[in-house]
Amino acid sequence: MIAATGTYTTLRHNLRGRSPRFIATQRSAQFQREAARRVLAGYDTKLARLKAESPCQGAYYYASLVPSWIGREPNAEPNALKYLRDGEAHINKWPKHFLRYMTSVKKGYELGVGPGFLLRYLIDVEGADMRGCDLDPAKNLIFRDLRDELGLAHRVDVHAVKSGQPIPVPEGCDSVFGFWTVFTETWSLSDHAWFLDHCREHLIGEKRVFMLFNSRGYDDHPEIQDYYIRRGAEFPYLANPAANMHPRDRNAFCILRL
Ligand SMILES: C[S@@+](CC[C@H](N)C(=O)[O-])C[C@H]1O[C@@H](n2cnc3c(N)ncnc32)[C@H](O)[C@@H]1O
């Protein structure tokens, strides 16, 4: 049973008379916020201990959480930390901007699950049967710990999406999701054509693909934008609606029925 803390008492009060969908969204968001807080608290405790033991080690601790980061920028924070530091914004952006386009998803697959917030919302709010894939979790401990706290570890395949290599979309999925996709940054038009045809082959029902492009590989490639438009993509947002987080990125969001 959930303890009647101040937060939950306020949440219960705010939910009176609201629709089941609204209630499910608020409950999911609350669960995700608390999971993100627990993960952050775990890292802060470790960081504080390391700082006390050795100031130098402390400064590098966060970087060491994502080994691949070390080679690139030893002093920079790992990118994944923003999902903890700005957890509230990253959790809220889904109901604020995107979930309204995802009603009626029954079974879906997310490419590059990352922190897992979208997967959790689709399970909790849509009642969707969700799985997804991401790179080796040992290479990104923040994402691994978040997905554990969100109860998603068993739903995420270790798989790197590469053009021309089959994506493990389970049988019976109606939707594929790719948000802030890193793997498309170097893709040519023929890679995108392969990707959309591959999704069409493996989806059933509405056969929808939801994509939020990183600026690189999309904004700088007008022919790719034209291609998606020609294949019938709708663009509810041509620029990132959560622009306060990435003011320089456009991040077009599209929905394609295949
Ligand atoms: C910018 S994050 C976005 C996470 C999540 N989709 C979201 O919107 O919150 C990109 C994610 O894609 C994953 N990723 C990068 N390259 C990938 C690839 N080739 N195949 C699968 N996942 C990949 C990263 O590990 C990371 O979790």
Describe the structure.
By secondary structure, the protein is of the alpha/beta class. It has a domain at 87-257: 3-Layer(aba) Sandwich (Rossmann fold). The termini are far apart. Helix 8 links the parallel strand 2 and strand 3. Helices cover 46% and strands 14% of the residues. Helix 2 (20-53) runs antiparallel to helix 3 (55-65) and helix 2 runs antiparallel to helix 6 (87-98). It is globular, with a radius of gyration of 19 Å. Strands 3-2-1-4-5-7-6 form a 7-stranded mixed β-sheet, with helices on both faces. It has 10 helices and 7 strands. The structure holds S-adenosylmethionine (SAM). Residues 111-112, 114-115, 117-118, 133-135, 140, 143, 160-161, 179-180, 182-183 line the site of S-adenosylmethionine. S-adenosylmethionine is lined by residues 111-112, 114-115, 117-118, 133-135, 140, 143, 160-161, 179-180, 182-183.
Structure at a glance:
The chain has 258 residues and is α/β, with parallel strands linked by helices.
Topology of helices and strands:
Layout: H1 6-15, H2 20-53, H3 55-65, H4 67-72, H5 82-85, H6 87-98, E1 107-111, H7 117-126, E2 129-134, H8 141-149, E3 156-158, E4 175-181, H9 189-202, E5 208-213, H10 222-230, E6 234-237, E7 253-257
Parallel strand pairs: 1-2, 1-4, 2-3, 4-5
Antiparallel strand pairs: 5-7, 6-7
The protein binds S-adenosylmethionine (SAM).
